[in-house]
Amino acid sequence: MLRILKRWLVLVFLSVASIAQATHLVGGFLTYRYLGSNGSNSQYRVNIYTYRDCSPLDGGVKFDTEVGLCVYNDNKTLYTSYKAKLISEKSVNPVGNTSCPEVAKACLKQGVFEVNITLPNSTTGYHLKWERCCRNTQTNLIDDNGSPFQGQTYYGYIPPTAIQNSSPSFLDMPVPFICAGDTTTIRNRVIDIDGDSLSYRLVTPWQGGQANCAELPRSDGDF
Fold first, then answer.
1. What is the pTM of this model?
2. How many whole angstroms separate alpha carbon 165 and alpha carbon 192?
3. To the nearest whole number, what is the mean pLDDT of the chain?
4. CATH numbers and ranges of domains, the chain
5. Which of 62, 113, 116, 156: disulfide with 128, CB 3.0–4.6 Å?
């Protein structure tokens, strides 16, 4: 069985400050599952898991009812786009062995988006992306203008069609807050239905925030 390195963007769940209006997303990930092929096309089910701060200070921002999934060729040119619909929303309990007082008063909700996509067979593969503003306010993510309104980019890579691949999916709830000077344990347990070996690394995330599929962000030569 051919082993491949599976890469997808994971938003790190680290927050320190209070929540401001319209700054509600905490993090999440994108995953896909190979459904089969009809000879010239292959089908995948794509799910986007995202978490939002539902504390009273978040301004009442809700999950979108649908989000845009962008699909790019391997040369980074846009191939097509899909609409992924919100299929579930639920409250979840933050975890982590931290004494940070933010955890005790945290309100966290999980939203799951889903769409089935059909792509022509390819010898180079495809890149999947979804971007959204705005992250919850945090003192460790301030841009050059002093603004806390950072976005998020969720990413997945589908390898050449000859590799009938499904991506890993996280099993654990995130740690949404880590206070300065505190310690915690972050578990990155995942399941991979193909049984492929996995590797982890910390990378500089893409800021995100675009409302369209015009561009695939660059990530310091990762791809």
1. 0.80
2. 10
3. 77
4. 25-191 (2.60.40)
5. 156
Residue with tokens 């979840």: 92
pLDDT at residue 68, rounded to an integer? 92
* Residue-wise pLDDT tens digits, 44-70: 999 999 988 887 765 567 888 999 999
Quote the CA–CA distance of 50 and 187 in Å, as a whole number.
17
Contact 117, 43 (CB under 8 A): yes
Cβ atoms of 4 and 34 within 8 Å: the answer is: no
Provide the residue count of the chain: 223
Give the Cα separation of 125 and 128 in Å (integer). Answer: 10
> 126-151: buried (b, 16+ CB within 10 Å) or exposed (e) per residue?
bbbbbbbbbbbbbeebeeeeeebbbb
